[in-house]
Amino acid sequence: MSDNKKYYYLKVKENFFDSEEMIILESMPDGYLYSNILLKLYLRSLKNEGKLMFNDRIPYNSTILSQVVRHPVGVVEKAIQIFKDFGLIDILNNGAIYMLDIQNYIGQSSTEADRQRDYQKRIAQDKGILPLPECKKSNRKSNKKSDNKSNRKTTPEIELEIEKDIDIELKKKSKTALESAIDDFKDYRKKIRKPMTDRAVQLLIIELNKLASDDETKIQILNQSIVNGWQGVFELKKKNEGTVSNATVKEFPVFDKSKFLAK
Question: Quick one: which of 94, 97, 93, 69 has its CA closest to 83?
Fold first, then answer.
């Protein structure tokens, strides 16, 4: 059985840097930077089991990754393309980055094969190759057992849980799209180690009100700052300058591995 846990550490063996990929990687110009970036991406992907996204709606691009891993944009772009060529990562159409061999470095060794299969299925489902899994009969049995356990709870406990669920749901529904976008911007600032104080958030809202009168434009302004790696908000770019309303991950330059190996 696979162990369904969230992991917060890497299980790296003593020969990690002796693999063929790492030897070639570190023998390149700036190779030591690439290996550092790779380790940072592994660590950042742990909480989402190998998947890298800024949030559910916005993927990482080279600018944001540059600030997160603290290396120049050009170095990050080359590193990402090399990782892709080496089969270390996969980038989906929606911009999600998957660390393909993350299962080798987390959890128990006895469950590694199961977790690797589950992980490949998850990537395939995100790509749209496989349908979402249906509930199995075995799950129904376990659900019945859990239902029996839950029935043992006293009425006040059940009512309290229901009230909590309702409160959480109401909070989710009451939050506007603009408030969610502001939360995304605050999360982005945390990830680049420039967290915002309550006063800074107030000033941000004041500045947004100066720049736009409607929520949709304000949301686009916030997304523009995230995608471009800006710490503040600025007037929305015109369409002929390239807006960010439909922003996706910036294309990474192609790395020609054959040229390097031919040297």
Answer: 97
Q: Indicate left, alpha or beta for 193 from its phi (over 0: left) and psi (-120 to 50: alpha).
A: left
CB of 78 closer than 8 Å to CB of 33: no
- Copy the structure tokens of residue 29: 């110009």
Q: Which fold has domain 20-104?
A: Arc Repressor Mutant, subunit A (1.10.10)
Q: What is the block-wise mean pLDDT of the chain (263 residues), using blocks of 10 residues? A: 57 83 89 92 86 86 90 93 91 89 69 66 69 50 50 53 55 72 89 87 90 90 90 81 44 51 48
What amino acid occupies position 40? K
CA distances from 163 to 157, 159, 160, 166, 215 (A): 10, 6, 5, 5, 31
pTM of the model: 0.52
Domain residue ranges in the chain: 20-104, 177-228
